[in-house]
Structure formats: C-alpha cells, structure tokens
From TrEMBL:
Gene from which the chain derives: ADK2
Function: Involved in maintaining the homeostasis of cellular nucleotides by catalyzing the interconversion of nucleoside phosphates. Has GTP:AMP phosphotransferase and ITP:AMP phosphotransferase activities.
Protein's name in the database: GTP:AMP phosphotransferase, mitochondrial
HAMAP family: Adenylate_kinase_Adk, Adenylate_kinase_AK3
Cross-referenced InterPro entries: Adenyl_kin_sub, Adenylat/UMP-CMP_kin, Adenylat_kinase_CS, Adenylate_kinase_lid-dom, ADK_active_lid_dom_sf, AK3/Ak4_mitochondrial, P-loop_NTPase
Major localization listed first in the record, in broad terms: mitochondrion
Domain Adenylate kinase active site lid: 144-170
Gene Ontology annotations of biological process type: ADP biosynthetic process; AMP metabolic process; GTP metabolic process; ITP metabolic process
Naturally occurring in which organism (per UniProt): Trichomonascus ciferrii
PROSITE patterns, alphabetized: ADENYLATE_KINASE
Length: 225
C-alpha cells in the first residue's frame, strides 16, 4: 500500500453514473492517500434509513424506487455532514461521492465552501460504458460481494455471519435503466457547470483496474508533483 501525500489540499467531487464505481475508486484513492477523507451521499442516506431518522423516513420510499432525493434535502444533509466532520476549512482534503448530483445543488455547495475558503479544486467524471454498468449491477450483492470479482465462499451466504445475502432494492436492470436515464438528464447540466469553471476532468475505462491508475496519476500530476 502506498502512503502518498498531496502537496496542497485536494477537494474533489467524483461524478459518474450509478454503478460506475465511485465508491471503489474513492476507497482505492484513500488507501494510497490516507490523509484524504471521503463522504458518500449514498452511504449517508442509507445510514439515515437504517437508523430510521426523520430524513431516513422521508427518503426511504424514494430510494427503494431508485429515485432521487429532493435538492433541498440533499443540500442540507451534506452541509451538515461537512460541518460535523470539520471539513469546512482551507487545509482539509476530501472527496465527495455522489453530491452534488444536479446543477441546482452545486451553487449552494459552492456558497458554503466559499464562505470557508474551501472551494472544490477538481471535479472528476468516471466514464464507464453503460453495458458494463448494467452487467455489473445485475451481479452485485450486499454487503461486499460481486459474483464475478468477489463471490461469497458459500453461494448466497455472508462469509462472516452466515446470513443470507440479498440484493439492494435498486439492484436490477429495469430500475437501473431508469436511473441511468435520469442520471444523464440531471447530470449533463452539472458537468457543464463545472466545465465552465475549468474544474472538470474525465477518466475513462471499463473496470476499476483500468480507471484507478489514471485517477491516481491525475491526482499526482495536479496535487502531488
């Protein structure tokens, strides 16, 4: 495992279609650059659902149907997480995974970050062919397994607990086709928003092993050399 450091703080947003591997790329980046923190909007929402918080109750049915949480709810949620983690300062390095997801969410985030001199300094779009994403989603199981890359030792059972594995409610092709369609409709203006700021960089590949070396080199070139 590498133990690299950036020479200046890195505050980035990973964009990519559902199933593009944003979480996987974030985890690999944090292993190589352990001083960088991360915040996943999806994980944060699922935590609220699991804990049955007021926000969790509000968004549970939306997530089960593969829908998108209202902009004002997401902005408030992520702002609160950034404050709680004490990341709203010029020295902090972090990755946002999955937020902002729409062009309407970006200006409120920018305003919050600007007030603390902690603006985004790069936005990375992970580009994976949709045929690959759909195949990946059909084979993905919670909590940690993929039938091709990391299958459980006993089919259908968790290796640690022995409990039956289940797929997330949104892990099927029909739901994901709708999510992909909605993603493109919502995210195209967001990509244009960050492109106009000169922040947008795209990394292409069919697998994590193809994408990650490109992502790592991008971070090194921009922030560690």
């Amino acid at each position: 495992m590498s133990n690299l450091r950036t020479l200046r703080p890195l505050r980035t947003l990973f964009l990519g279609a559902p199933g593009a591997g944003k979480g996987t790329q974030t985890n690999r980046l944090l292993r190589d650059f352990p001083h960088i923190a991360s915040l996943s909007s999806g994980d944060t929402l699922r935590k609220h659902v699991k804990e049955n918080t007021p926000i969790g109750q509000k968004v549970s049915s939306i997530l089960e149907k593969g829908g998108f949480v209202p902009d004002d709810t997401m902005v408030s949620l992520i702002r609160a997480e950034l404050e709680a983690n004490k990341w709203l300062n010029p020295q902090a390095s972090w990755v946002l995974d999955g937020f902002p997801r729409t062009a309407a969410q970006a200006p409120p985030l920018d305003e919050t970050l600007r007030q603390h001199d902690a603006m985004l300094n790069i936005v990375v779009q992970l580009v994976v062919p949709e045929t690959v994403i759909l195949d990946r989603i059909e084979k993905r199981w919670v909590v940690m397994y993929n039938l091709d890359f990391n299958p459980p030792q006993v089919p259908g059972k968790d290796d640690v607990t022995g409990e039956p594995l289940s797929k997330r409610p949104d892990d099927n092709a029909d739901v994901f086709k709708e999510r992909l369609k909605a993603y493109h409709e919502l995210t195209t203006p967001l990509l244009e928003y960050y492109d106009k700021q000169g922040l947008l960089h795209s990394v292409h590949g069919e697998t994590s092993d193809i994408i990650y070396p490109k992502l790592k080199q991008l971070v090194i070139d921009k922030f560690a050399s």
